[in-house]
């Protein structure tokens, strides 16, 4: 499929099939209470994307789903997107979708990277700081969105009350009522743009890979499996007892 030319960083048209270098600075989503930041770099050749993401300041010992969100406004949600839950302002995944779009690619550490793996929490990075590097194949729709400047990197999982775990302070997740909203809310976000400054140009480190088999919840913008989050919460409870 031939894509229409788009403007590159220097204003010259870039054909859809040509190489593209995209960068993003990841910043805390409003009301997420995150203090960390991140960077991302994507080298796109055809439908092959070499991805590098660095993130810090996230919840310790917790899984953090991350994705390319595509085909919307190509921006991160503003503070005005927040709603009150349990008398606390927050932005959940659904609130952000009009701005950053649905999931186009799951940035897993191994195995499938399609939206079908958007919930495979056992194949996403874990912990407060990580460096993720992987070469993956993206869909035509994702490649088109990235080249058009409407691709956004979103890292999920917040701790708004600072108690070191995902809990129900914000009520149930908008994605599944069996999950806490903290586990699925967007934490860091950045728009991928050609020629943007400050993104990862390299870096040491490795991604984390576990058993790729997991029970998942289907649906646009879905993130975490009930089984995986339940296991995480059980581990937290066991350590605290």
TrEMBL record:
Residues 1-20 are annotated as: Disordered. It comes from the Bacteria. This is CHRD domain-containing protein.
